[in-house]
Amino acid sequence: MPKWLTGHVIDIMEESPTTKRFWIEVDNVEHFAFKAGQFITLDLPIHEKRHKRWRSYSIANPPKGYNIIELCISYFKGGLASEYFFKELKLGEKITFKGPDGVFCIPQQPPSSLIMVCTGTGVVPFRSMIKDILSRPMQPDLIHLIFGTRVKENILYLKEFISLQEKHKNFRYTVTLSKEENWEGWNGHVHQIYEKEYKFSPATNYYLCGWKAMIDEAQVRLAAMGVPKENIKLELYG
Ligand SMILES: Cc1cc2nc3c(=O)[nH]c(=O)nc-3n(C[C@H](O)[C@H](O)[C@H](O)COP(=O)(O)OP(=O)(O)OC[C@H]3O[C@@H](n4cnc5c(N)ncnc54)[C@H](O)[C@@H]3O)c2cc1C
Questions:
Q1: Rounded alpha-carbon distances, angstroms, from residue 71 to 45, 56, 128, 226, 228
Q2: Is the CB of 72 under 6 A from ligand 1?
Q3: Which of 67, 117, 168, 214 is most deeply packed, by most CB within 10 A?
Q4: Cβ atoms of residues 137 and 109 within 8 Å
Q5: Extents of the domains making up the chain
Q6: Predicted pLDDT at 106
Q7: Which string of b and e fits 66-95 if b means at least 16 CB within 10 Å?
Q8: pTM (whole model) above 0.85
Q9: CATH 3.40.50.80 applies to domain 113-236
Q10: What is residue 97's predicted lDDT score, i.e. its pLDDT?
Q11: DSSP 14-47
Q12: Mutation test residue for ligand 1: of 72, 76, 216, 233, the one with most atoms within 8 Å of CB
């Protein structure tokens, strides 16, 4: 049986018109231990049947030795958890969860190059990983975060990633928007970026996170580029 923990919602912030950040303070522990890239599973009051109440969310903050977990959750119209998080959940509410779980993590000795590809809240585990890796003594030569969404206002953690890019020479940040005309950056989907930039470097390590359509397409395209399967790690949201 999993060990269920409890916590309380101590802060909620709008990150974009369709995404919110939630901070949960874990009860009865000083240090909630997890690895960057892992997730927790919440038992939400959204259904009578237990297994229909469970939803997993990646941890957005890096492990820093305290008992706070940050989640970043997007709204999916009609989704039971989405409706709960965006229309019912209030500050101070009790949260029941298990975890941390998952193996979507960067090894202690990281590979020399890491390309992280994501759309929407797929960026969440990468935010934890990037902040974690950039504070380690052993650093990769390159961490490239490739983030895709539809429009400018949906870019998540924009200022933070820009500031990390300014501070760390080995961190690159590229955003591409698929439905924004008035924008000076990339237009279109995430795939065109790694295909163009890393065409001749099949030994690069890829981390993919998000929903099935993006992940399936990336796997096909990376295989066509000659990237071996063992160089691709993924976290599938559904
Ligand atoms: C390991 C893991 C980590 C996750 N981390 C996060 C996270 O950090 N942030 C986050 O927002 N979600 C995350 N998810 C997804 C999350 O668990 C829920 O599936 C999501 O919140 C939708 O739940 P719901 O009850 O609102 O919708 P449901 O009623 O469960 O949705 C029904 C179906 O709609 C589709 N769907 C739902 N949302 C989307 C979407 N945004 N885009 C495309 N299709 C969608 C899916 O096919 C889903 O099966 C994660 C999932 C996993 C497995």
A1: 17, 10, 11, 35, 32
A2: yes
A3: 117
A4: no
A5: 5-101, 113-236
A6: 95
A7: eeebbbbbbbbeeeebbebbbeebeeeeeb
A8: yes
A9: yes
A10: 98
A11: EEETTEEEEEEEETT-S-----TT-EEEEE-TT-
A12: 76
d(CA 32, CA 88): 26
Residue 42's region, left for phi above 0, alpha for psi from -120 to 50, else beta, is beta
Euclidean distance between CA atoms 129 and 117, whole angstroms: 13
Residue nearest to atom 37 of ligand 1 (CA): 76
Check: CB of residue 109 under 8 Å from CB of residue 80. no
Give 45 Cα–ligand 1 centroid separation in angstroms: 16
The CATH code belonging to domain 5-101 is 2.40.30.10
Q: Which two tokens stand for residue 221?
A: 């395209």
237 lines ligand 1 (CB under 6 A): yes
**Neighbouring residues of 131: CB distance < 8 A, sequence distance ≥ 6:** 36, 61, 62, 164
Reduced to 3 states, what is the DSSP secondary structure of residue 151?
coil
Question: Residues in the chain with pLDDT < 50?
Answer: none
Each residue's pLDDT tens digit, 70-79: 999 999 999 9
What is the rounded distance in angstroms from the CA atom of residue 118 to the CA atom of residue 211? 9
Show the tokens assigned to 46: 């959204």
pLDDT tens digits along 211-225: 999 999 999 999 999
Asked if the peptide bond before residue 100 counts as cis, ω within 30 degrees of 0, the response is: yes
